[in-house]
Amino acid sequence: MSRISTGLTSAWSHLLADWDRTLRSSGKPETTRYNYLLAVAQFARFLTDNAADCAAGPAAPAESTRAHIEEFQAWMIETRSASTALNKHKVLQQFFKWLAEDEQEIDRSPMERVKAPTTPTKLVPVMGDEDTKKILDTCNGKTFTDLRDQAIIRLYYGTGARLAEVANLTTDDLDMATDSVVYQGKGGKSRRVRFGPKTARALSRYLRARSRHRAADVPSLWLAARGAQPLQANGIKIMLKRRGKHAGVSGVHAHRWRHNYAHAWKLAGGDTGDLMLLLGWSTDAMARHYGASAAAERAQEVQLRMRIGENV
């Protein structure tokens, strides 16, 4: 909170602290709370920094207007992207709704007539087998880092988990007797997912190396190569980019394997409901979105199997 609130007026920082308390009491995970608070702090900072160029920056959240929010959204689109502006829009909706309904600091939300930014459909390319092999080949050594990174990559590749789900694993979440892992998903929902023999072998090799690490007693599954610290999600992001660069594969990030998992599942004729359970989705909208960039390939595979126009 102190870092997020740096440079804000007391009115903004106090309300942010109160909102954070509400978010914690409703069970919002830490990453969600951070993103929510950051968005509001960015809005408040924008009003202060651009007071001379736009309508006078409000001293307190209750003085925010539709014009302020629209200028902030336009700035986000120009300096970041439309999708980032849309995320901030959704957060500000929640913040001003809380300010009106829970705190009764305002009579009505200034977000009521603010249109959400439109975003172009962006298809995320799947991380196919060929590129995955190139990346895994960079982890063929016997060092602690090689064994750890291969286990991490195989979990993403073999289970389609989110970045944070793999990053936040503890040693208790692994069950090597049943070759399964328990992920803590969004909204505090947990699910058990099986993994294959190659992933199991990579994990087993890592666990043996981990048992000799100076931080072997740390509950976090993934450990930094040096020191006695766990490897955090940001460290995994950096590792994946580094491995991708070394392998000559661009745009490497965990979510591409999530898209690949959904694509491979659909290509094999897997049930959408089962896919939702495995990947931790509550609606089929995400199931339609993930793997969409490879939808044409799936359609062509089905066409060949059906042999339309080849029966006479």
UniProtKB/TrEMBL annotation:
GO terms, molecular function: DNA binding
Superkingdom, natural source: Bacteria
Protein name stated in the entry: Site-specific recombinase, phage integrase family
Source organism of the structure: Saccharopolyspora erythraea (strain ATCC 11635 / DSM 40517 / JCM 4748 / NBRC 13426 / NCIMB 8594 / NRRL 2338)
GO biological process: DNA integration; DNA recombination
Assigned protein family: Belongs to the 'phage' integrase family.
Domain Tyr recombinase residue range list: 122-304
InterPro entries for the chain: CB, DNA_brk_join_enz, Integrase-like_cat_sf, Integrase_catalytic, Integrase_recombinase_N, Integrase_SAM-like_N, Tyrosine_recombinase_XerCD
Gene3D superfamilies: 1.10.150.130, Intergrase catalytic core
All copies of domain Core-binding (CB), residue ranges: 10-100
Keyword annotations of the record: DNA integration, DNA recombination, DNA-binding
A Pfam family reported for this protein in Swiss-Prot or TrEMBL: Phage_integrase
